[in-house]
Amino acid sequence: MLEVLIGIGLGLLLASNGALWLKLNNCYNSLSTLIQKSNDIAIDVPNLDDIRDEISTTIEDFIGNLHVPTAQDHFIGGLSQIMQMWANEKNLQPMVEQMQNQLTPGTEYIEPQYPNENLP
């Protein structure tokens, strides 16, 4: 009986190896045809001067739209900071209270016992 099981196992092993070899051979053939076809494709190299000009115009447009902050900009920035602090305090206060209620220490606190260092 053991010989039959070993024979079946070896047969399945050889069959799976054969199937894997066929699959790998098929993948190799497909890959080699793709490589041969890719050699026929001509790649147009982009002109670096055009790319450089496009980047420089983009940067010039961006820098051209910048301006020195005025007093109005500073006032609006300060006002928005105050409003954000107010909104955070208003929205976060219930959550802070809930966390403080959950994290309060229990009533059964036991003070740790430290050994006396003066004992021999």
Catalogue the unreliable spans.
Answer: none
Multimerization status:
single chain
- Average pLDDT confidence is 85
Tell me the total number of β-strands: 0
Shape annotation: flat
Helix content: over 70%
What key attributes describe this structure?
single chain; 120 residues; mainly alpha; 2 domains; 3 helices; 72% helix; flat
What is the element layout, followed by pairings?
Layout: H1 2-38, H2 48-64, H3 71-102
Concise structural overview:
The protein has 3 helices and no strands. It is mainly alpha-helical. It starts with a helix and ends in an 18-residue tail after the last helix.
Please, could you describe this protein's structure?
There is one protein chain. The chain folds into two domains: 1-43; 44-100. Helices cover 72% and strands 0% of the residues. It has three helices and no strands. It has helices spanning 2-38, 48-64, 71-102. The longest helix is centred in the N-terminal third of the chain and has 37 residues, at 2-38. The model has no long low-confidence stretch (mean pLDDT 85).
